[in-house]
Structures are given as structure tokens and as C-alpha cells.
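FW: tagging you since you asked about this chain on Friday. Here's the raw sequence from the shared folder, copied in full. Didn't touch anything.
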Amino acid sequence: MQKKLTITIDEQVYKGLYEVIGPRRISRFIEEIVRPYVSRNDLELAYKEMASDEKRESEAMEWVEALTGDVSS
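HL: got it, structure written out here
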């Protein structure tokens, strides 16, 4: 379900959004930027998805182990 929100922004910012993002994409752009700051469920879901990526986790573990070696030297 979507809700309508009225916000006030500087005219230059609006013009930039309109030119760069496009007139029918501004709401979605703002929502995608704001969502991680206000929706904890999405953050938890993102962490779960990252953790289930075995290749990514293997690469991350190699990186951590390499750093650990640097610290112990």
C-alpha cells in the first residue's frame, strides 16, 4: 500500500531531481534512498540474503583472515 507525502525542498534540488532522475521516477528514487534508514525489516532481510550467498561469504572470510594475519604481525 502506498501513501502520498508532500515535502518541501529547495528549487535547485527539485530541478536536479527532475532532470537527472526524471519526472515520474522521483518518488521511487527518494523511497529507495530513505528505506534503509527507516525499515529495519529490509535491513535484516538484506543481511540474511548476503549470508546465504556462499561465494560472497567465502570471499569475505578470506578477506577477514588476511586482515587478521596483518594484525598479528
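FW: The chain has a mean pLDDT of 86.
HL: agreed, and The chain has one domain: 11-72.
FW: great, closing this out.
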